[in-house]
Each structure stands twice: as C-alpha cells, then as structure tokens.
5-dehydro-2-deoxygluconokinase
Amino acid sequence: MNNLTFDSRKQMDFIAIGRLCIDLNANEINRPMEETVTFTKYVGGSPANITIGMSRLGMKTGFIGRVADDQMGRFIVGYLEKNQIDTTSVITDKSGSVTGLAFTEIKSPADCSILMYRDNAADLKLEPRDVSEEYIKNAKALLISGTALAKSPSREAVFLALDYARKHDVAVFFDLDYRPYTWTSPEETAVYYNLAAEKCDVIIGTREEFDRMECFEQNTDHDDYFTAKKWFGYHAKIVVIKHGKDGSIAYTKEGESFKGTTFPANVIKTFGAGDSYAAGFIYGLMQGWEISRSMEYGAAAASIVISSHSCSDAMPTVEQIDSYIQKCKNGEFVAK
Amino acid sequence: MNNLTFDSRKQMDFIAIGRLCIDLNANEINRPMEETVTFTKYVGGSPANITIGMSRLGMKTGFIGRVADDQMGRFIVGYLEKNQIDTTSVITDKSGSVTGLAFTEIKSPADCSILMYRDNAADLKLEPRDVSEEYIKNAKALLISGTALAKSPSREAVFLALDYARKHDVAVFFDLDYRPYTWTSPEETAVYYNLAAEKCDVIIGTREEFDRMECFEQNTDHDDYFTAKKWFGYHAKIVVIKHGKDGSIAYTKEGESFKGTTFPANVIKTFGAGDSYAAGFIYGLMQGWEISRSMEYGAAAASIVISSHSCSDAMPTVEQIDSYIQKCKNGEFVAK
Amino acid sequence: MNNLTFDSRKQMDFIAIGRLCIDLNANEINRPMEETVTFTKYVGGSPANITIGMSRLGMKTGFIGRVADDQMGRFIVGYLEKNQIDTTSVITDKSGSVTGLAFTEIKSPADCSILMYRDNAADLKLEPRDVSEEYIKNAKALLISGTALAKSPSREAVFLALDYARKHDVAVFFDLDYRPYTWTSPEETAVYYNLAAEKCDVIIGTREEFDRMECFEQNTDHDDYFTAKKWFGYHAKIVVIKHGKDGSIAYTKEGESFKGTTFPANVIKTFGAGDSYAAGFIYGLMQGWEISRSMEYGAAAASIVISSHSCSDAMPTVEQIDSYIQKCKNGEFVAK
Amino acid sequence: MNNLTFDSRKQMDFIAIGRLCIDLNANEINRPMEETVTFTKYVGGSPANITIGMSRLGMKTGFIGRVADDQMGRFIVGYLEKNQIDTTSVITDKSGSVTGLAFTEIKSPADCSILMYRDNAADLKLEPRDVSEEYIKNAKALLISGTALAKSPSREAVFLALDYARKHDVAVFFDLDYRPYTWTSPEETAVYYNLAAEKCDVIIGTREEFDRMECFEQNTDHDDYFTAKKWFGYHAKIVVIKHGKDGSIAYTKEGESFKGTTFPANVIKTFGAGDSYAAGFIYGLMQGWEISRSMEYGAAAASIVISSHSCSDAMPTVEQIDSYIQKCKNGEFVAK
C-alpha cells in the first residue's frame, strides 16, 4: 500500500514523453576516450531507458517523442518495438534534425563522463500537436523528464501533456534528469522545472538537481525536508531526493519519510543507475507496494545496470531483480 | 465592495511588468500610412499605458522592465518619471537591443492598424534576475501583460514575478494583450497564457484573446461562462471578457456576472481603449468599489482616450473621468 | 574626358543595388532626440539617395532591391516611381521583414547622429535570384553599396550582380558606405569589402572606411596613395578618398591625382553629404567630364543637400547645381 | 615537367585549411546502418585526409583549422602529430562547439552513404585571426576545401588565406569537396565557390561539383572544356574534372588535356577515393612530374584506399603506391 492511486480501467500502464537518443559506449574502457577506438550503439535517453525498464518488468508501455528521419531514428523505433513499447506517438521529424548522441567515457568505474551531441536534436522538436489527449487519457501513469523542458517546442509539448494528465487523472512522475546542455541560464532552468513540478504527483531527483530548482529560494542548508514540503502544497504525494552512494530519501505528503538501501555491485560504470532505479521504484509503486519496498526494488535494478556495459539493454526483468535481491540477502553475491 | 483584498500596509499600490515601447502616431489621419508624412512620438505598450493611467488616477505606481540604451529608452524613462512612476526596476539593456515601435495608421475611426517593430526589442530582454522579490512584495497589485510572455528571457521573468506575487499576497491582474508578433505558434501562445492565467486573480481579455487560449479545449460556442469558470478552479476571482462595442461581461468566483456599459465618444481611433479601460476598472476595484461601478469607470476612461490622438498621454485623471460620466449622465455630452 | 567608358548603346544609364529604407528626420532640431516630438518620413539609404540624385540630374535610372510588404515598403516604391526610377527589379519581400529605419538626431549642424533599426530589414533579404542578368546587362553603370554586403543573402546577390556587370562591360561604382550595424566582426567586413572592391571600376569612400578595409595590411600612416594603388592591380580606374571638410582626393590608374574643392553651405546637418557628392561626381563622369570638374559638381551637390532638412528629397537638379556653383563663384552666396 | 612552379626556398611543402572531423565507420558492413552495432573511430574530413596522405608520401605538411575542446578534438590533434603534421595552426575552439562526425554506412561496395553531424561544428568556427600570414608565406602549396566555405567565419578565414597565398606566391589547390550540409541555397554555394576558384592555381572536382558552380551559366551540355576554360581567365593553370569510374580529365591553361587511367581494386567502399587521388596527384605535381604521371599516381592511391576500411588511416606511402602500380602493370594484381 502507498498513497498513489492508478485507474485500473486504463489500457496502458505507463507512458513517457521526451528524449530518445543514441548512446555510443566505449568498448575499450578504463582509459580516456582519446584512446578509445570502437564504440557500441544503444538506445538511450533517460525517459527511453525508464520505459524500456518498465517494459522489461512486464508493464504495458508507450512513448511520446520525435526521432530523426535517418538510420539512427529508425534504429530507435525498431528497438522500442522489439521491446514491446507502443510507438504510435513516436513521430519522425522531417525538419532535418539529427539524433542526439551520448559518447560515454569510462576512465574508471568511479570516473565516467559523457560527450553529448544535442545541437539540432530531433527529440527537442516535439510539438504540442504531437501530444494526443486520448493517448495520455488512456494511461495510468505518465513520466516526464527535465531534458524535454530545455527548449521549445518540446517544452510546450510537455506542459500540454501535463495539462492533459491532470485533467484525466493520470499519475505524473517527474524525473528531474538535469543536463547542462541546451539550457540558456540557471534561472530559465529553475523557472520551468518549478512550473512543471507543480503539476506532478511524484518528483524524483538528486540533491544537486533540487538545488538547481531552488535558485530563487533560501534553502542554504540544502535541507531535504524543506525541498519536499514545498511540493506537497501543489499536487505532489511523494518526493524522492537521491544522494548517490549514500542512498535516497522519500517523503510523503502524509508526513512519512523513508530512507532507501543500496545493494552491492561490481560496478563497470555509473551511467544508468538513476534510470534503472526509477523503473524499479515506479514499478513497485504501480504494484501497490509500500514505498520502502519499491525503493529497494529500484536500488536492486540500479545495481544490476551499473554492473553491465549498457543502460537500456541491461534493464532487468522481474526475475532478474528478484533473484538479485535474493542472492544479496543470502550473502551469495559479493561485490569484487 | 468586491471580492478582492489588497494589503493596505504595502507601500506601493500598483506595479506592472513588461512592455515599454514607443508609439509613432500619424499626424495626418484618415488616410493610409503611405500618405502620412509626419509622426508624433509617445510612450506606449499596454502595461506602460495602464501604469500611466493608474498614476494619473493618483495611485502610487512602479514598473519592472527593460529599455534600450538609446535616445528612445531614455525618453521612456524620463516620461515615466515625469508621471510619478517609480523606475528603480526599469533596467537599461546593454545587449544592443532597440526600443519596440508601433506606427499607427488611422484610415478612419473604425479602420485603424498598427505597424510593429518588435525584432530585438529591449522589453523582451527582461531577465529573471531583473525581478526583485522585495519590489513585488511591497506592492498591493501586480499587472502582467501577455506580450511579455512572447519570448525568453522576458517570459521567465514574468513567471518569476508571478511566483513572488503569489508568495507575498500581491493581487495579480492579467491583461491578455495578445499581439501576433514574436510568437512562434498558436500552441506556444496557448500553453504560456494558460500557465500564467492559473496564477492570476483577475483576468481581462477580449473574446478573441480567450479563444486563442482555448486552442486545446472544446468551447466551440465561444461561451463566456465556460471560459471564466475554468480559471475559478485556479486562483481567479474575477474574469472579464470584452466584446468591443458590445460591452464587456465580468464573472466572479462567487457566481455573479456583470454586464458593462459603454459611453458615447467622438472617436478618433480605437487604440488605447483597452488600456484605459483596464486602468479605470482596476482603479475602481482597488478603491473597493462594486464591480459594476468599476466597469463603468473603465468604460468612461476608454471613451476619453479614444477621443484623443494618443494613448498614454491622454490617460485621464479622476476629475476628468468623474466630469465625463457626469456630463454623459446629464445628457450634456453628445457624440458627433 | 576621363578614363572611364560607358556603352552608349545601353538603354539604362545607371542602376543601383542594395539598401532602400526610411529616414525619420527630427522636426525639432538642435536638441537631443529625447526632446524631439515629431519626425518627418523620407526615403533613405545611400544607394537609394544616389539613384534619386541621378534621376533628378536627368539620368535614366533603376534599382535592384527588396522592400517590406507593408506601408513603408509601398511608400518607398511609390516615391521611386514618382522620381522616374524604374522599379521592375524592386521585389516585395514576403518573409515578414520590416523596412530599415534611420531616426536622425541633429543636436547641432556639427553634432548629428543616427539611431538605426536594421534587425530583420527587408533590404538585406535580397537574393541572388532577384538579380536579373538582362537588367544589369542593359545598364551603362551599376552602383553597389557596402551595407548590402553586411549579411546573407543580400551579400551574395551583390557578388552575383558584380559578376554580371563585369561580364557585360557595365562600369561599376562602389560607394563603401560602411555602417557598423549588422556586421559580425572587423575581419568579416574587411574580407567582403576587399572581394567586392577587386571587381569595381571606381571606389569611393572616406579615409576611415578605407582604413577598415585595410585591417590585414600595413598602412600604418593611412597613406592615400598606398590605398588607391592596390586597387589599380585589379579593375579600378579611379579611387576617391574623402577627408570630410578637408575635401577629397581622387587617384587614377594612369597615375594622376586630383584634390577636390568644397563649397560654402548653411549647414543644417551633415547627413546626405556623401550621397549627394556621389550623385554629382558620377553624373559628371558619365557626361565625360574631367575628373576635377566632376568632383566640383559632387561638392556643390553636397553643399546643397546639407543645407536642407532631408537627404533624398533635397537631391538637386542640374539647374540647381549650376546656379549654386555660379552664385558661389560670383561671391553671391555667403554662408551664415 | 608540368606548368606549376613551387618555391623551393620555402620550408613547408604543403598546408591545408578547413575541416578536421571524425569518421565513425561501421564495423559490420554490407548492411544498413540500422543493423550496425559497432563503429570504429578515425580522423576524417577531406583536407585532413589529403594532408595525412601528403605526409605519408614524405612531404613536410601543416594544417590550419579549429577542433573542439573535447576528447574528439584532442584525438584529432594527437593523430595529426603522430603523422608528422605540424599543428601549430590548429586552434582549440572554446565556444562550446563539437567535432563534426561522419557515420558511414556501407550497404555494399557500390552503395555507401554518410550520416553527417555538422551542427555547431568546431571546424566552421575557424576565424580570419586564426590564419597567420607568416605560416602561409612559408609554404610551397596551400589546399582549400569547399566545405570550409559553407559558413561564417570559416568562409572568411579561407578567403583571407587565399589572399595571403596569392600575395606570397603559394600555389593554391582547390578541392571542391561539396557537401550539401550547412549551405543555405544553391546560389550561395555557387557564389562563394566561384569567388574562391578565381584565386586558385589548380581546381579539382567532380562533374557534379562543377555543375553546381555553374548555376548562373549556360553549360547545358555539361561540357568539361567550357568548365575548365573559364578559370584560365583567372589564375588557374590546371583544372581536373572527375567522372568517377569513367576516370578524370585534366586541362591546362596552355591548351593540353589529359585523360586519367584507373587501377583495379577490391573495393570495400568508395569513401576516400577523392582524397587519396588528390594526395597522389598533388604529390606528383610537386615532384615536377608530368600531369599524366601525376594522375596515374593519384589513381593508384585511390585504388589502395577504397580497398581498405578507413580513409585517413589507409593513406599509402610512396613504397605502397609504387608497388601497387608495379603489381597492376605486371598483371599480378587481379580484382576479385
């Protein structure tokens, strides 16, 4: 039991809106990218990864977004479909845009960075007219991601989706997913993040992301409860603030708070931790589980993904997560 | 008595945010602009005009905006100061912007048009950091205008001002003031107008402006009550829908409605009618008058301004409006 | 006799390409623009003024350019036609551009400045496809102006016009007319001015304008002969370097040089001096006059224009210039 | 012997200006890119490839260009240096640009295409001030490439380099290298290609590229001699028009023409054929060889490169080319 409700009569479990892009992951790792010779191509983008994760967990999912009219765009759509994600709201952009790219550099498991290509990216060309009221109405939950707010017309498309979601009782999850590219100023970022957060049921972000949203406020101590409380004055029911390896904390509108656990992992890279966490956590909440159990499920999913080479492709199934948790609890799994 | 409250302890009565520009009014009128030879320069821009109107009516006023770093910008600041408007929040833009211009063409009293210069306009360079929380906190009322939402960073500055106003119990008036320039698409316009309107106490616009805001809704009959009702679900207490010569209608959150009257006028041009109406109406509400009396005051102010050559410069004083109403009621005033 | 030849079989005497705009001249002069209340509207833009000047002097003229699709654009076309200038190559731009504006400020006859509106200006939307090879082929002379090189696609249109002119033995005059607006960097300016100058027969500019072109060279003494000589290695036959009140100097490919005279004037403002000078000078050259007589004619035209309120509208006829020169020589004219 | 002269006192043999980018070549070939999983990273860009080719052939080379301030940019500089190319004029761009990318798709040896990333590309940020007169003066030959003309400020940097080259007797090679990205219109392309070609000694391009340059001319038969002849009226001494598998034809100012041969190859992909041809051909000319022998050398180099996976990395040495020609002439080499 948790404080969210999902309308069981709706056909679709979960849809996300926003970024669809390509990850090019260094094959030769533990070195600077200057010395990387080959790269492997995966579907990427935080909302894409979370949706793939939800689909792997057996949920009925769909996506609202734009892809470039090229080989990369077609690869993305094909991959989503192979993963049973509905793509009827994935539009092919004809404006000459390109697919956003993320080259990953893995110098060491603890020292990872990303080289982004976000100029003229297809996903940011999403338009309000691409957002179908009917499509959103038919979903139990909608996930929005901060990167889709970074630029017009994608920004307006997200606000319209939020409006439809609120109108039709669709639970809204906001994965802050702040990326410094594309945004013009810290103030611009804070204004739109705040306008969007006002309309969401569950807000998930790192402490640093919430700090960024508070650029017009006085939370000099970076107090998590101060942060969470604000949103309960709007529509939020759960606010999760992540502190990396120190775990996360969830607050509820009803005044509870839950400290999250972490699981051991043989870390290859840190990418994908947040997306797999979100998938596991949201999955749990949609099953009606307690918040703490949902957080545990997210943490286990995250440990699985950071032990793999990819983000999207490594998203685990229910069986994988259950078995991972079991092994950890039995002491069978020991991180090297 | 009306349903608004204003905090009498605050020092400033009324501040506006947004467009400050220059009107260049044709001196040779009743002909196409091609045949106009000379133009007279006035301060213009809907929120500027309303603020000048409020100041003429004896209110303590101020303005938040940006002007170009040139002769036109300095003329605007000088004119505001001459009209007792506080300009401490009027910033001189150093980016090389220019002052927005509006050349007016008066082919006949009923056939007026405007030739706008809005590229690289200084007023749209207003930034969130220009908006002082303290300045807004100290005002009883804030007026925002739709044109300031048309472009970043002015758009974000307005959303921040709205946030501060709600936080500090400042009554917010929204003059829709839709101008087709600068906006990218009808959907973009609707999204931001709606996001702003959610945060306002009083919303004033023409039927056509409200239609534009409803581009994602089904109000096929253009029903005024349908329009007004939506906003009472947010923060609105009064919604005024203007129907040009057919007068206006005001709805309250409490379920009342008021039909506005009009006064005779020897019309020179229709420009400035809306701004003077807003000034008179808001003045009345801030005096604590009944809504219907406030509407009458606005209508009288409008009749005075459309009988003059300018907008800003013709904004009437209390004495002028009172005397005009008196004359009309006595039958002394007969429109030619 | 001079060193230029014009093909007498061609139907059109003189065509210009480039800027067509509006001057808004302060009516209340000898004060800062902040205190100016009314403005008078004139056609402006250096190549427009020169063409009007040439037409007043009885030449068969035409223009290649773009005007905005509004009242200002229609006023410009109407004025050109009233002045017997062929407008078949004046295109109405449909992209939503505006007419460039120049507000003049006349603080004193010696202290004049201009406030320019050049954002989204129609004249800079001129495209190569607007340039008719036939139209250029049929002209004895073509004048290009530096402002038209400031931005694409107008820049490319000018280079195409130059190409057609060289191909069909049209004498090319280059009025440097440097304006700091629109250009991105000093290097950009120098590169395109030099590329254009290589293809011209007569180059006319101020010392400061030539300095700007020499940003990649070592003419530290600002030596006029150094400046002129370079262009004789390309197609130039005459180079005129203007030194304001100190008169101008003309060099020929053949090695001659001519010092220009000036005439007295009751100066109202300095605007238009260069354009009227160019008209008078080019007219003289096209009559086959000696260079020194042509320079004198230009100087007299300039004195007439700076004694008037406008630029374009004050362009003198042959009778006016002849009479002015006569009066000056007779000592009848005494500048106050 | 050929009709070019190179100043033997100059220290540097060959420098190029323009595009430095990254090729990401599909490892799994003979399929659509949608099915490609991994990519190998190489330095790319036509002038970069040619310079690498010249360096492999033993010439003293250098490069003028901009690279992004990231891992890709550093990889490029490192690779050039490893190939003995002087990088003192390779600037690291600090504007937040990215490295241009070219993903190659090899559906079959005859059906190859490229997916380009050219938005905000570092190489197009090259500025006139990056071009050192001294650096160009010290080179025997300069190569420019059409892509560097596609956008400001790189376009102006190339024109300045051309100016310095002509001033200091540096032989200029123009590899047309037309790419449809970045250019705004066919007319824009033609205007700048023509302006640049006027200043070059040797112009090398495909028939299609020359057609593009002739958009304002009447060469309806696509006649090669018509094409070449025009440039002999400027500075050109040799014009090479390439007809793909049908070989190429070279014209000289002196009226000769030479038909090029081709060599057999086990083609993997067609990319890099032009660049390796240029390197071999220019190398031959700089050795003082006959034009026909130089063309043969270029053709052999091309056959070697199209039989390999990469462009830059496969550029052959003198020994490799000599041996390849020998084998072909001996009949030892038989294309499969």
In short: The interface with chain B takes residues 127-129, 133, 152-153, 156, 159-160, 163, 184-185, 187-188, 190-192, 194-195, 216 of chain A (CB under 8 Å). The radius of gyration of chain A is 19 Å. The mean pLDDT of chain A is 96.
